[in-house]
Amino acid sequence: HRSLTFDTDGTIYGATACLHDVSRRLDAPGGKIFTFDPSTSHYEVLSTPVKYDYIQTITMDTQRRLIYGLTYPVFKFFKYDIEADAVTDYDFIGSITHLSALDDRGRFWGTWHWTKHCLFCYDPEADEITWFNHSIPNGPQGRDIMYPGAGPVDCMINGGDGYLYIGSTLGELIRLNPDTAACDYLGKPFDSRRMPGLMVGKDGLIYGCGGDGYAGQMFTYDRETNAFTNLGAIYDSELDTSCYRTHDLIVDDENVFYVAETDNPDRSGYLWECRMD
Fold first, then answer.
1. Residue 130: Cβ within 10 Å count
2. Which residues contact 148 (CB under 8 A, 6 or more apart)?
3. Over the stretch 91-119, which tens digit does the pLDDT of each residue have?
4. Cα gap 111→156, rounded to integer Å
5. What does the alpha-carbon distance between residue 49 and residue 32 come to, in Å, rounded to a whole number?
6. Contact 217, 234 (CB under 8 A)
7. How does residue 276 score in pLDDT terms, banded at 50, 70 and 90?
8. What is the overall mean pLDDT for the chain?
9. Rounded to the nearest 5 degrees, what angle is found at the Cα of 138, between the Cα atoms of 133 and 142?
10. Cis ω on the peptide bond leading into residue 137 (within 30° of 0)?
11. DSSP per residue over the chain, as a string?
């Protein structure tokens, strides 16, 4: 789902998601963490961290060789130690982020509590979780938009400037100070909901994608001027169609952006190639 990530040597780590009914729960072995070597096309299953539940998203700490994961349909938090081949299951936390991130100290950030969707962070050096009693701005209003029970965090990245940047399910950009857990509301660059894709460009701007119901759009945020630029709709004139719902964003070495589309009720989702004129 949101569970593919590169190691420093180019190896891909991933995890399997699933949408089986509750009636099949006791038959389900649980999601697997696996590796794939693009140079040899070799797959290897490493672990099934949580029995019965599948894995919606992972975040990898390449330095400490740790993988953090969040499960579905029961929202659990776990840590997988690659070198030790060991799982620590922190069990039910009541909330889930679409994509989490690590701060500069290697702490994992997520949300907990089934209605408040408050922030928490796990510190691997202290091996402890800090539970905060506040959510991101407008957090409770942004719950359940992805799917029932899900929290308001659509995407989270490390900005490389000491802060974490969060795209909310309401289509808002939030800045999180990991030292204090304080959150600043930065703005909303388009009318529609969702902001599942964020990244830092080579020019230092934050690039993002969002939009729902054929309202897919891209934008930039300039951290020096605190200004948004809406780059417009993700639209193909030849096909006369727009991106229904954005899901992820990446850029290649030629500065071409790719946006993944999901959940389209009318056709198969597209991979969109977006060039900046």
1. 13
2. none
3. 999 999 999 999 999 999 999 999 999 99
4. 12
5. 7
6. yes
7. confident
8. 97
9. 105
10. no
11. -B-EEE-TTS-EEEE------GGGGGG-----EEEEETTTTEEEEEE--SSS-EEEEEEEETTTTEEEEEEESS-EEEEEETTTTEEEEEEE-S---SS-EE-TT--EEEEE-TTT-EEEEEETTTTEEEE-S--STTTGGGTTSSSTT--SEEEEEE-SSS-EEEEETTS-EEEEETTTTEEEEEE--SSSS---EEEE-TTSPEEEEE-SSS--EEEEEETTTTEEEEEEE-EETTTTEE-SSEEEEEE-TTS-EEEEE---SSS---EEEE---
Query: What is the edge-to-edge ordering of all strands in the sheet holding 206-210?
Result: 197-200, 206-210, 217-222, 227-233
| Distance from C-alpha of 178 to C-alpha of 240, rounded to nearest angstrom | 43
- Nearest in space to 3 (alpha carbons), one of 67, 94, 81, 77: 67
The total number of residues written for the chain in this structure: 277
Residue in the structure block whose two tokens are 């969002």? 210
**Look-up: residue for tokens 């699933």?**
18
The residues facing 35 across adjacent strands are 13, 44
242 within 8 A of 233, measured Cβ to Cβ:
yes
